[in-house]
Amino acid sequence: MKILVIGSGGREHTLVWKIAQSADVDRLYAAPGNPGMAQLAECVDIQADDTDGLLVFALRERIDLTVVGPEVPLALGIVDRFEERGLKIFGPSGRAAQIESSKGFSKDLMAKYGIPTARYQRFTFSEEAVRYVREQGAPIVVKADGLAAGKGVLICRTQAEAVEAVRTIMEDQAFGAAGKEVVVEEFLEGEEASILALTDGETILPLVASQDHKAIFDGDRGPNTGGMGAYAPAPVVTEAVAQRVMEQVLRPAVDGMAKEGRIYKGVLYAGLMIADGKLKVVEFNCRFGDPESQVVLPLLKTDLVALMMAVAEGRLGEMSLEESDASAVCVVMASEGYPGSYEKGKRITGLDTAREMDDVVVFHAGTGVRDGNIVTNGGRVLGVTAMGADIGRAIDRAYEAVGKINFEGAYYRRDIGAKALTRL
Ligand code: AMP
Ligand code: GLY
Predict the structure, then answer these.
(1) In what order do the strands lie in the sheet with 153-156?
(2) Residues with beta carbon inside 6 Å of ligand 2?
(3) For a designed S-S bond to 144, which of 178, 210, 289, 347 qualifies (C-beta 3.0 to 4.6 A apart)?
């Protein structure tokens, strides 16, 4: 089979790495890919949001299965366009991707189908949003409706901050058209967990639960990032919680989407807030998580290509999941200054030494090549993943690997996985 993976981050490197292990793969392409992926796949210079270019390429190369990493091409309807031309592709249609690309749509879906979530209101006029914020008080959360590269959520500790957030999003248009509408919602307390579930619109197969680390600094302090590390399994998701996730979240979401005429297939990402065993959905995403994929996919034993083909062909019911009972931890190495501004082009050393370690995989996120050397080329640079018999051993191994890698200004959290240890 010929397979094309769309995207250029750590999540896509993980997808390429996993797909390359499948016996059915003859040729593997990544568009646009990155230097890490280039070791396993042929990188094609087409950007992830260039749906025209990707379609032409897939038709010309007779790609058997396309796997979409990021949300933007999904929201642009790449799946609809590929399927119209008879191409197989893993991911939801543009209308189904609205579960992520419109927070208002997603919240209304949850309200309609009884999925537990934070209390909320949608607004298209800033004055009304400001009035609501003043009524509700703080803490409160203000969210741009549309896609904002993970930056459109503002957690406001005071009323003044919340009023400012509304103005920033709706009047100053800090996130462009994504902020034409806002969702204002109740601030939720608890511990977060991520569930990635494969579905063909009927059968739902949840992968092992994981936990991201959103904040830049240790102890979950400082501004939110795309994610500074992850581990799986997440002990906060006990068997009882997992069962509730299926009954209260995944099943009603997948069935609800079908009832709305937006059959959902691909991977459904449920971001949960868990407190005292009770759960609420923080958000749905229409794609794999990043960096959650870097710990969830290494634990998957079932052939990923077979699973994705079954999703694309609507026969996931024939499949079952087998996962390793080991643990995985991913420590993200970032550029100094991230999530604010940072420099690029710093030479990275030690990658080969880290790669030689057993049970360690270094996934590239923001890397580039300059004069034959691998250099930094983004905020999140590498995802250093290690497997271990338990979470403690996986943590030690991941940090041992991180210690072998160097670049000027390398920053990483020192407490990835620490929360899991307190629960064991
Ligand atoms: P989202 O872009 O919706 O994933 O939100 C990003 C992050 O903001 C989440 O992972 C949470 O850490 C936080 N967040 C979003 N909504 C809420 C909420 N209602 N209460 C508390 N934290 C939230
Ligand atoms: N790690 C959070 C996300 O993928 O949205």
Answers:
(1) 120-123, 182-186, 140-144, 153-156
(2) 212, 227, 285, 289-290, 292
(3) 178
